[in-house]
Amino acid sequence: MAKKKIKDADAELPLFKDMPLNGFTYHASETKQAKKPKGVKEVKAETLILEATTLWDYPKQSYGKTPKGNNKYAGVTPAFIIWNLIQRYTKPGDLVVDPMAGSGTTIDVCKEEGRQAIGYDIAPAHPEVIQNDARNIPLPNDSVDMVFIDSPYSDNIKYSDHPDCIGKISCEDERFFEELEKVAAEIHRILKPGKVMAWLIGDQWVKKRFTPVGFKLYGRLCKYFETVDVVTVVRRGQTSNTGLWHNRARRFNFYLRGFKYLFIMRKPIIESEKGEQNRSVKWARYARDKTKKRSKTKSLSSTTATLTGSG
To answer: 293 in helix, strand or coil?
Structure first.
């Protein structure tokens, strides 16, 4: 029997119509290299796959012929994350903003995918990143199609020498979250209603003390945004990902940080603008029960009406 084609009637993602089911294929760099010795295999073409689950795991930071960002930069973002987000939540020509762009991964990915991009950072490490504090973004209200941000998780990494860098504040200090909330308020201001922002963040365990950075930040983000979903991104590039640290974690009974949160959230649409977008979600089991009760009530009322009418 021929397999039936599955159609997703609810799919409204701005993806390319000719997108292959298994993603786009790109090829390794074609720069001149010395001849490979016998027995060494040629580099195979790689495939970019649109993630279908909430667990994302990338073995390396970048992809394709040209680097995205600088993989030597402290806290550099995996380019695959940004690629997946802009495929799902933007279309060619849309404006994407990264308020903490660092080495410019967001800019590099967006340029290759035909999106407009503006990157800011308090201490830029990319020629196209503009020097600016994320707590005061110089863009008009409701002007951006998507925002991506990979912020400091605490003061565990030296991002810059700038005195106002949020990464100089420990996440054990409540001021850290107060400053990040100021950034969230700015993101909310510049983002168009109904559009998406994605925030990448991790927790901290230092000196036998755990700080749930992700949970604490998420609570503040919920003041401004509606949750689309929460993705778990496997951590691979941290310096503690070695045999030595794994042995220490087992010996001294603690856990190494194995993942980051990717909070995908949407700026709410003003009530007056929602119109027919309002909808109520009803679980099927409740709907069926109510239907049965209603049908019984209708049958009784119709019987009563018939008896009454016949008199």
So the answer is: helix
* CB of 77 closer than 8 Å to CB of 86: no
Q: Considering the domain boundaries, does residue 33 fall inside one?
A: no
Domain count, the chain: 1
The CATH number that applies at residue 102 is 3.40.50.150
- pLDDT level of residue 78 (50, 70, 90 thresholds): confident
Which is nearest to 149 in space by CA: 127, 181, 178? 181
Buried b (16+ CB within 10 A) or exposed e, 184-218: bebbbbbbbeebbbbbbbbbbeeeeeebebbebbb
Whether residue 239 is predicted with pLDDT greater than 70 in this model: the reply is: no
166 phi and psi, to 5 degrees?
Answer: -65, -25
pLDDT digits (tens, 9 = 90+) for 196-221: 999 999 988 888 889 999 999 999 99
pLDDT at 31 over 80: no
d(Cα 105, Cα 119) in Å, to the nearest integer?
9
Distance CA 95, CA 191 (A): 10
Amino acid occupying residue 59: P
The helix (run of H) or strand (run of E) holding residue 186 is helix 174-190
Q: Residue 55: its pLDDT value, please?
A: 92
Strands 55-56 and 226-234 come out as parallel
DSSP secondary structure string for all residues of 18-41:
T--TT-EEE-------PPPPTTPP
Judge whether 253 lies within some domain.
yes
In-domain check, residue 297: no
